[in-house]
Amino acid sequence: MNETSKRSPLVWVLYGAILVAGALAPMAFPAYTNQMAVLWLMIVFALTWDILGGQMGYNSLGNIFFFGAGMYVSAVIQIGLYHNVSEYTDAAGSGVYTFTETQYFTGIFLGMIGAAIFATISAFILGMVLFGLRGPYFAIGTLGVAIAAGELTGAWDWVGGGSGISMPTFPGHPDTGKYFFYTLMFALAVSVFVFLKWLYSTRFGHAINAIRDDEEKAEGMGIHTNRYKRLAWSFSAFFLGISGAIFGNMTGFIEPLEVAFPTITFGIFMVVMVLLGGKGTLWGPILGAIIFHAIKEVTWTYMLGWQWVALGFLIVVIVVYFQQGIMGWIMDKKPEWFGLTIAQLEAQGAAGDGPVSSDPAEGRVGT
Amino acid sequence: MSQIIGNINILIEAPVFNLSLLLDGLMIGAVFALSAYGLALVWGVMNVKNLAQGDFVIMGGYTAWVLAQNGIHPLFGVPVAFVLLWGIGWVIYVTVIRRVIDQDLFTSLLATFGLAIMFQQILNLFFGSDTQTADAGFPSIFLFDGQVSVPQVKLIAFVLAALLATAVILFMKRSRMGQAIRATAQDPRAARVLGINTDKVYAFTFSLNAAICGAAGALVAMIWVIQPFYGITYSIRAFVVVTAAGFGNLPGVIAAGLGMGVIEQFGGFILGATFQQALVVGLLLLVLIIRQIQQARVRQVVQ
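Structure tokens for the assembled complex are given below, as produced in the milestone run.
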């Protein structure tokens, strides 16, 4: 099935259309450039969360840690290359520090690389500690890491503590800056998608699916589960670190609790978006991110003051009443669209009813 | 760093300080033990991990605070919060929790996280984000020539917490409903076969949990400060206590709750108040890692 979809020209036209539309969108709607950049960020969030949550069955509530860590690492690199970091944070952005154009772009480039490296390594190290925890303990443990990171960064004066860091300003017209960061986010989201599409079709994808379905058996089959789990988390941390570096520069001001380690906003959004779209699929998280972001923007605009309550309510409703997600729902109704009729029936016959309907990814790899 | 060493020196040179911290810790720990017991109950009976636990506590706290604002003594807030939160707990059970019991554990975790966000934001809209305290107006008792002050209100809170815990334990051991709850915890299917309405038991358990938390919260409002966003810290504390003690182990939960209070008081004094939340979360990670090492040992034995 994978082979046919690769050869069909319609799919390539569709991909091309998305690429062109993505690249031209900020020109068509210049007023919404930032919102659209955040949309690509949300897609990155959802896709990277789904590596663990959907494909590997490890529900992390602390992936936001890599986002924040990347943001701070990048900020420190960008500033530290040309200035003294502690003096800079003491001055609290009072404008005595300047960056030339070359310095700025070199800083961002190196910052993104540093953020990616740091996030990847920290995922690998955290993985050694946290992957011993199963099920909900893993979720709570990762949530703990994210909250602790926010609190500790807030108490660390060298990086500005609770008052944060104002990032270097973009050299040039603000609109150009917006377009620049939009392009970066867009490129990142596209690379995440391409990477994951490739990754899920390799042995690696099958291995982490095996871990999701039954970790003990996967281990029994000779899969080095610990190695795969750590690698999978490192992949998601790699992209999250870069996204943090870009987002920090995009907002222009970073701060530990609300911007860098926002456990109850971005941290929970990524989970909800994936659940909404359908976990364990490639397009589900993207669909979920788009719909969730649209709903969020509308509630933010029209429900002043109550938007957070609406958001909590939305989370509860999605989690309680719409667990299988949009893709899962479509798959239940129209399995033949995915060429899955036989696999689905077999899976249902083999495993009974319950687990299949709650886990839409059953018997379906590499769509 | 030097400040930390200085604080440790103070503790060594003035031993009475230790006593006052210890008493404070025990009295606050009693409240933690209450909310942790509620969590252990829900966790053990219906296998739901409630991340909105701390928000029940904070809601109870605001009940006492509202009463105090209207000239009613906050001590009355304890029974009022108990009843009010019982109702809220029941409504939440019927609308949300009933539907997540059969699903995997992450679902309940996420659903209650969503609830927690909702509650804290509603509280924030109604009461603002300032820290509040319901002043009970009791004087302090001074020991050792006034070097150790024990606020009477903390003592009263401690006694009330102990009474409430005893009442709940007696209820669980003696009453018909308590028996039904314990039977359901052991084997829900067998309990159903024997004619226990497990849905009712679940509803009762969850409401009881919310009510206990609410009462504990009313005590918190008197002895400490409350704020709409403090709930998550209480949830994490409850998780630390229950994870450390195991949910079937009631004396363990109480001991761990008291210990948590003491550790937090000493830690807060030595490291400074900015690290308090980080300390709680750090304890959580520590407990999880220790548990994991223990589990790894068990797994090796099985192999």
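The mean pLDDT of chain B is 84. Chain B has one domain: 2-302. Further analysis is deferred to the final report.
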